[in-house]
Structure formats: C-alpha cells, structure tokens
Amino acid sequence: MTKRFYTIGVAGHIDHGKTTLTKALTSIDTDRLKEEQERGISIELGYAPLRLGDDVQVSIIDVPGHERFIRQMIAGVAGIDLVLLVVAADEGIMPQTVEHLDILQLLGIQNGMIVVTKTDQVEAELIDLIKLEITEQVKGTFMQPAEVFFVDSISKKGIAALQQRLQSCLQNVPMRDASGPFRLPIDQVFTIHGQGTIVRGTVFEGEVREGEILELLPLGKKVRARQLQVHHQRRPLSRAGQRTAVNLGGISASEVKRGDVLVSTEGYCVTTALDVALDTLPSINYPLKQRGNIKLHLGTAEVFGKIVLFDRNELAGGGEVLCQLRLDTPVVAKRGDRFILRRPSPVETVGGGTVIDPRGEKHAFGEATITMLSRKKEGSPSERLVETLKIRKALPDSELIQEAGLTETEGMEQIKNLVQEGTVLRLASLLVYKGTYNDIAEVMKAEVTRYHEHFPLRPGINKAEISQKLSAYGAVLAEAVVEKTLSAGVFQRKGQSIAANCFVPGYPRQWEIRMKQVEAILEQQGLEVEDFQSIVDQAGVPGIWQEELRHYLLRTERAVDLGDKHLVWKTAFDDSVARLRRQAPPHFHLQDAKAVLKLSRKYLVPLLEQMDAQGLTKRSENGRMWIDHFNPSKLPNS
Q1: Angle in degrees, CA 538, 543, 546, rounded to 5
Q2: Cα Rg of the chain, angstroms
Q3: Where is the Tr-type G domain (predicted)?
C-alpha cells in the first residue's frame, strides 16, 4: 500500500476556534507557548499529526488568526495541500477571514473545506444565515464549490463526519512531487541539549534521507542531516508533504533563520531580483508607486524590497501585472513558486502571484519587456526551455529543466526533441540555444579574421587568447564552442593556434617584395651571413614587421637560428651538415669541421651548437660525434 502524505492548513479569524478544532481532530493542543496559553490565541505556527486510515498521513497546521501575526500565517499556508477555512457561528465572516481567504487564493491553494465552529453557541435558525453569508463571501474563489461542515469542537459533534470527508477528499488531491530535488523551507529553528541545531518545516518537494549532505541557502553552507523526525518519530526518510524536523550537523543555530531553505542540489537560485506575474487585490487602499516599498513573503521567507513596473508608474488594485521585485536581502526561489506581496506601511496585502524567472535581470521600461515576460510566463514547455537558454546562455540538463519549471520526465523529452530538430545544441555537458551558438561562432570568426589581418605571418590566434575574447559568454561555454567549431571543421587547429579553414600564413601584399628580398639575401649569403637586423634594414622592411618576419622564417623552417641575432638559410645549413657527414670522421673536432666548411669560429661554433640542439651530434670529450643511429631522421639527405 502506497503511503500518501499531505499538509492541511487551518485558517480563519482570531478566536474562531482553529486550535480547538485541531485538537478535536488530532487530540493535540497546538498552542505551544506559555504566552499563547495565557492569551488564548496562536502566535506561532502549531502542528499536529492526523492519520486518516492506513495509507494517509496528514500534518495539520494551525495558523495564527490575529492580523499582527499574518506573516506566520503566510509561512504556514505556503506549503499546504488543502485548507480548512474556519468561521465561528457566533461571529460569522470577519476581517481576518477575508484576508486569509485572499491569501489562500493568491497562493494558488486549490483544495478546501469550510468548517463552521461553535455551533452550540447559536440558535439553529441562524445556521442557514451563516451558510448564506459564507457562500456569498467565497463566490468566485477556489472555495466556491467547497463543502460546509458544522461542528462543535468541545463536544466533538460533527468531527467524525469531517474526518471521514477529509479522508475521501484527499484521495483526489495529487501528492507533492517526491522525484525532484529536495527542498524544505525552514519555519522554525531551535536547539536541544546534546543534539544541537534542529530545523523544522514542510518538505515542499523531493525526499531526504538520514545522513544525507544538504546545502543551507542562501548561506551556501554544507550540512548533514544527522537525524530526521516526522511528528516526533524518528524516520530514515522524509518525503514531500511531510512535516519534518532535521537535526543538522556542521552548523550552529545562530547561523540559521526562518526563511532559509534546505536543498539537496545546487540548481536552486539565490537571488535578489524576481521577474513575477502579480495579481493585485481590488481592495487595496492606495496605489503602489513605481519603486514603492514592498514586503515579500516567499515560502517561509519575509524580506523587504521595491517593485519595478515596466508598463505603468503606479499600480492600482485588481488585475495582473508583469513586473520585477528587487529585494534588499537574498531569497531562494524557482520558477512557479507562489508568493504574497504586502505593503509595509500602511500595512495591507497588495496581492500575490507566481515567479516567472528567479534570475531577474535589468529590463527596459516598455512594451518589449512586457512581451518578453509574457512569453516567459505563457510559453509551452519547449518555449520555456528555449527562453531560459536564451537568457542563461548554457546550462546542464538538470538545471535547465529546473529553471524552466518542468518535471524531469517532461523536460528530458522536450530537450530530446529540441536537440533533434537543431534548435538546441549539446556541447559537452551543456545545452546551448542554436542562436547563442551562432552568435558566439560569429564573434569567434570576426576575431580570427581580425587576427589574420593584423598578423598574416602567424599560423593563427592562440586558443587561450580566443577563449579570453569570448569570456563574456563564460569560460566553460566559450571553451565548448571553440571545440565544437574545430570538430565541425569551421576552423582549423594548428598546434595551440586556431585559424580560418582556408588560411595559409604569408607575406602581406604591401611588404611582399621587401620580405622576399630578405629571403634572397639570406640565400645568397649562405653561412657567412650578416646579422638579421642589418638584412631587414637593407631590404627596407618596416620595424613593426621585422620580428614578425624573423619568427615566420624560423617557424616555416625557411631559416635556422644560429644565435647572436643571426639567421642562416635552411638550405645552406642542410648542405653544410651533409658535407660534414660525408667528409668529417665519426668523431670529429672543431678543426675537422673548419677544414671541411672553411668557416671562421664566428660562424662555425654557432653552426655546431645548432647541430647539437637538433640532435644531429653530441659533445664527446673535446669533440663531437654523430648520433644518427639514435635518430637518423634528424640528418639531412647527403
């Protein structure tokens, strides 16, 4: 039998009997604090387990009803699967009833039931009036089709029927995704003597095992889940939908706060700018100005910031607006996360909505930005993948799927199709939008062409240098594109250099005659050559080209470097080596070489040292010996 785990929120106005109802359902009093017991209201979140049959386990969250503690209420309902909206029979709909309903609607809660409490305190004929009032209030909300139950939590009249209906109702509520990466927004932090830091929250998605290494965001610190508890019972595994306490190793309680998030992967985004679709309440008292102050409630986090509008300068109540939230402190978010937006002063709920892109960039004011945000919001799965890649340039499969807000199965199928049709390219471990690849390849082509124009005597641009030119796209992506263009034959590799496919190093047209004159002089002078500086000056080669020409002649093996700023023509060098090989003994001395080549020490010593450097000869006692039996290919033809 498959176990099913759910979280139910109990919401409603202060003193409407939420805590008493929770106790009637679970036999647990969720008013945990002394202050709560004395004041008779819930300040913090209260939790209690409820088992409905053998296969359904429920965490019930009793959220505060007082307006002053609305932030705790939002933190509590952010992770629920079904809500019980509580209305006291003796008071009916009250201000926090309405605000809680608004918040539930804005957070995208889809399943709910209405519970009328304290039915023992009103006459029977008032029940129908209360039901009518509730029906009018929930019209047009997700609660419109909800059933209404009448209970007396003290005598438990109606509680059994409510439990039975809850069990059947939850059969139609889909379970949270336990296949994706683990995420647990933290709403409570405390310590226990001898155990250390404990955090508590509802697992939003995925699963966690005892002993697993997790990351605490936005701090970015690795921690270990030393022990897991679900409703005070130690468990080796906790899954999406379960109310869970985690004993953390490797961190102190002072480093953790409500609003932090435990995750199992690096794919989650820590951000201070969110592109969002915001639904505003028609009941807000004052318009929200451009860059006006806001308070964001996301998961269990509560942060201040400003709203940035792209198609208006103030925001009135009612309707949807695409905008950006720029935050004072980082939050952890992913595409599709629901949030609530409140005004800090005067305090009121402005609206709520959905995160379109957790990595919001600066956008220009105007219709183009609205069009772009609309495309990101409304696009098909494949369009969302492509749009994400356009913005992020390159991502591994798992991060792309997560940022596009898709399931792993759906994401991998869409990626497969996009790669097959050529819209997306796979470069090593990265996925890249074809347009981005083409843009980078064009930049690369322009840089290589420019390099050839400036340095026509060189074989090409150094690979490290071209990667640096593309660094704006990121080092990993730049390297991947360079390798792809080389393997595809767009460019050619010459050692550590990259060149255009048809490029052959050669003399620039305006200096070709003078550079060829240098060749002629070198060829004519043989071994007894002037220093290279005198030769290029004699030929009229401009100063900026002289060193380029020298390297070119050596690199193309037209000349040989004899040191002390002397180059000799390669043919003259080879001929001299061949003559020595024929006429000098196997072990020869300086005088033997001088007798054969008729050269002064000025030219002879550098020649013999170059032969040593090329592995043709080696020093032996006071002379040299041929080592062609070690490497005969080093010898020129004789």
Answers
A1: 75
A2: 39
A3: 3-175
**188 token code pair:** 């409570």
Phi and psi at 368, nearest 5°, equal -60, -40
- Structural tokens at position 54: 């053998």
* Residue 201, H or E segment: strand 196-202
Better pLDDT: 463 or 55: 463
Q: Using the CB atoms, write b or e for 285-319: b if 16+ within 10 Å.
A: eeebebebebbbbbbbbbbebebbbbeeeebeeee
Query: Please, which residues have CB within 8 angstroms of residue 56's CB and are 6 or more apart in sequence?
Result: 3, 4, 6, 167, 170, 171
- Spatial distance between the Cα atoms of 377 and 357, rounded to a whole number of angstroms: 9
Top pLDDT among 86 and 34 is at: 86
Least confident interval from 49-53, 194-198, 500-504: 49-53
Q: Looking at residues 535-549, what average pLDDT do you find?
A: 89
Query: Which of 143, 170, 197 marks a domain boundary?
Result: 170
Q: Give the tens place of pLDDT for each residue, 579-602.
A: 998 998 888 999 998 999 998 999
Task: Report whether 419 contacts 426 (CB < 8 A).
Answer: yes
Please give the Cα distance from 287 to 282 (Å, whole number).
Answer: 10
| 8-state DSSP, 205 | B
Total domains present in the chain: 5
**26 near 49, Cβ under 8 Å?**
yes
Are 7 and 80 in contact, with CB atoms under 8 Å apart? Answer: yes
What single letter denotes the amino acid at residue 181?
P
E-strand ranges in 235-376 read 237-239, 243-249, 261-263, 269-280, 288-289, 293-298, 301-309, 314-315, 320-333, 338-343, 348-357
Question: Is there a single domain that holds both residue 467 and residue 608?
Answer: no
**Domain-terminating residue out of 332, 349, 373:** 373
| Confidence band for 64, pLDDT divided at 50, 70 and 90 | low
Does residue 48 fall inside a structural domain?
A: yes
Q: Give the C-alpha distances (Å, rounded to integers) separating 490 from 441, 469, 483.
A: 9, 18, 10
The residue segments making up the domain with residue 281 are: 269-373
Q: Pick the range with the lowest mean pLDDT from 58-72, 184-198, 269-283, 445-459.
A: 58-72
